[in-house]
């Protein structure tokens, strides 16, 4: 019997800049949170369950919210159960490993709980997991950089360098990205192309990659165990796996529209955009 893919939501963030539980902020035309819209898109694309990665302090609220609305079953994983512990989560690679025991027998996608990836983005992820997945392989669903900027300040984005066959060569973090008065997109690293492939933390994995991520985490953490800020991030782990030829990563472009919430000022523009999207 074929096991369908899991859809993993990174929902353990502490919302420092937002100032609250933005995972559940009502933004949809009927008061839906972004996770409600995303889970509905995932179910429509063929994902069979949701695995929400949370912290114990918010688990009951997240569980109740999703179980009341989700068309597919929910399981929880607790990021703060995976040692070592600190107040700030250890990053997306650590988060994924906290759910590893729930994912070892099936392919899975992974996404931020406070980003809306649109039907096309989720469908592109499901298509890769169904038709292109292979051992020791992952995919990164990339958005057009110009469509991921903010009118309310600068953003940070991982910009993908892509090979001739669509494979990831590396993902370079660019800080303080914004469209300037000259109409061009600038960052601390210089001018970026509007059409550049931007990573928004939407990934697909064959479960064999979990052991590779775990090996990178175990090599990274000894030098960071007393660090209160650094994070072990999935794009950086994927860079290392590609560079050491332990895994391949396909870059899958989508024409979908991305929306996200970072600050409270993002709420109203997101509500307006989603109202038009679902009109």
Automatic annotation (TrEMBL):
Keywords: Nucleotidyltransferase, Transferase. Residues 8-133 form the MobA-like NTP transferase domain. It comes from freshwater metagenome. One of its GO terms (molecular function) is nucleotidyltransferase activity. InterPro entries: GlmU-like (IPR050065), MobA-like_NTP_Trfase (IPR025877), Nucleotide-diphossugar_trans (IPR029044). Pfam families: NTP_transf_3. The lineage of its organism: unclassified sequences, metagenomes, ecological metagenomes. This is Unannotated protein.
